[in-house]
Design goal:
single chain, globular, Umud Fragment, subunit A, about 0% helix, 1 helix
């Protein structure tokens, strides 16, 4: 979810935002059938959900497709119901990426049909993930994308993530309460590793 979220961000997640299901609790409660006090997510929400492949692994991605939507990516541009989503370039950033060394990413402000805006980043518009078939979101499911578009395991991988059932949503990510570039246990280094500018930022 870079650049919206960074490794070392700690989040407040609203578990009541969408009502409660068996996955809203640290230990699943199978006595809850479906969702109670259910409120559907909005397009653009950043959501924690249980991976449908195992119903236990937590993922965090952005809700892009609602039930019945047609989702596609063509040349790096997101299409929702056959209409391109506006993407405004806002510069580049170079990030050290493990053994690959420095990698330059292009950043864009994406504006969804409901007016919600967020930043995404791409290495290029020619990767395998930048040209997809059409995904038709089933009833009662959602299509999730990561903001780091060329490095995200999300709903484009039908066998790994795919369409996420409403019942699998854990909650909406609301705010960063702590952020650190390093181990939080090394408290003597906090003066140089805590990202003070990210503390208590809302998640858009």
């Amino acid at each position: 979810m870079i650049p919206t979220l960074l490794v070392g961000d700690y989040l407040f997640v609203s578990k009541y935002a969408y009502g409660y299901s068996e996955y809203s609790f640290p230990v699943p409660l199978p006595l809850i059938s479906g969702r109670i006090w259910a409120t559907p997510p909005e397009r653009g929400d950043v959501v924690v959900f249980k991976l449908p492949a195992d119903n236990s692994t937590d993922y965090i991605k952005r809700v892009i497709g609602l039930p019945g939507d047609r989702i596609q990516i063509r040349g790096g541009v997101l299409y929702i119901n056959d209409e391109p989503v506006q993407r405004k370039p806002v510069g580049t950033v170079t990030i050290r990426n493990g053994v690959m060394g420095p990698v330059t990413y292009h950043r864009y402000i994406e504006t969804l049909p409901n007016g919600r805006q967020h930043m995404i980043q791409e290495i290029s518009d020619t990767s395998a993930l930048d040209n997809t078939g059409v995904y038709v979101v089933p009833e009662g499911h959602y299509f999730m994308l990561g903001d780091n578009r060329d490095s995200s395991r999300d709903s484009r991988f039908l066998n790994e993530v795919g369409y996420v059932p409403f019942v699998n949503l854990v909650g909406r990510a609301e705010r960063i309460f702590f952020s650190i570039d390093g181990s939080p246990l090394r408290f003597w280094d906090w003066y140089r590793t805590v990202r003070f500018d990210r503390l208590f930022q809302s998640i858009e």
